[in-house]
Fold this sequence. Notes:
Structural class: alpha/beta
Keywords: Membrane, Transmembrane, Transmembrane helix
Shape: globular
Strand content: 25-35%
Number of strands: 28
Number of domains: 3
Radius of gyration: 35 Å
Transmembrane segments: 20-43
Amino acid sequence: MVGHRISGKIEKSQAEQGFALVAVVMSIAVLSAFLLTALAYTLNAQAPSRRDQDAKAAEQAALAGVDEYISRLNANDNYWKLGSTDADNPAFSDDGQTIQGTGGAGNSTAARYQYTLLSLPGQITSTGVIRLRVTGMSGPAGRASTVKRTVLAELNRAGLLNYVYLTDYEVTDPDLAGQSSSCARYYYASGGTPARPRNTCSEIQWGGNDAVKGPLHSNDALQINGAVNFTDPQVETGWPAAATATDGKTWWGTQSPPLTNAPQYTGIIPLPESNNDLLKSVTPDVDGDGDVGPGCYYTGATRIILQGKTMKVLSPSTKRSDTPSRCYNTSISGSEQTVTIPPVIYVDSSTASCSVGAVGYPATNEKYTTGTSTAVSWGTSTNYACTRGTAYVSGTANTQVTVSGSDDVVVVGDLKPDATNGTNVVGLIAGNCVWVYHPLKTGTNSNLNSSANVTTVQAAILSLRHSFVVQNWGYGSALGTLNVYGAIAQKFRGPVGTGTATAISTGYSKNYEYDGRLTFTQPPYFLKASNSPFQILTLTDG
């Protein structure tokens, strides 16, 4: 009996121990599962954190690649001509360029960038826009764990068409105003303060009734004698004293600081010296350098009427046998012809005999000159000699086109693209003047026509050696308002009329507004400032 009782106690104790052991094992299993779950969560959390860091590093590497390519362009503005084949630049290789300080190519923290030029040379020459794809990478090269981020950048050279108004000198053109050539100097040039002879030069003044609707730049000092309304904060001057002004007066004149959107010093934006570079983009090969392009070449006085995607052309002196038929049939050069508008039109001077007025300008009973000078004293007009490289242009373009004259461009009627919100743009480039047609009657100083011939010019305008100017601006009756929607760049500031602060007496009052599209979409083959820096137009995820 005793043994039996002892045996029962022992069996009970073993059972209790077994249950306890199971409970311990289960507790350990639960605890282990919890620990493993926590460890797995921690390990899984580390991967996204690492990838987040790599993603940020890759994004910054891509942006660094864009900046580095821009620095190469600014050091060598023809660098884009190498395409994507520069053997000395690791950024064109598959492994890319490692960013200094982020480790070697095998380091898990190494950041690199690789880029590819997407634009063809002909596209860059035509548009001035460089398209670049840049991929930033973080992590070991060639590993699946490497994180990549890609951006697409559009670049162009900052300069002439970034402004509604750009001048080299803030004086009236000496050749047009009958003034001394000594007026063709900067206000701040060596030779005195001011350097220009005072009281003998027709200096341009800005006053309280003036308004500028867009960015403005002058290489000269701005003379401000009133609270001019600069509606855009980008107002720039090349006057060195503006960079060191301590009183806030970054201009000269009677207006005292403060001035809303006062000029800021940015240095010089030089105008190209000639438009001869456009000859590389036309056919035939007139300059003998072996370069031809899709543009058309004409000689002597040439009338052009834009009509959508076609144009009417009358160019009696264009007689070269190698002129393509898409531009002109030279066998009937005296007849007006309809052809497709090319991307660039260049009108050059001619030595062939010709008849003044064969293209309709000067008009019947119009007062005119055919002298060798661009000037006819105060109240100037275009030199109508038919041998000059002058384009007489008007109409509406349903395409992109640049019209250039080795001498002049005369806007003889309203000129515009087919819309102000699309990609169609018109460019005008003159070696001398871009004129707005305003004829006088023979033997008088009165208007030939009772109303204005031109009221609207929607174009990018560049006058290389002279001005954008209205013919005979100081004579005749008032013509109303000249609406310019685009950009004006000129050597000298050109007059468009005369009058008081409240009313015009002759010529036009001004309404100039910047066409913001010109920041991104410039007329084909439009000339660039030679030393202006490259900039980012657009930057998007790739």
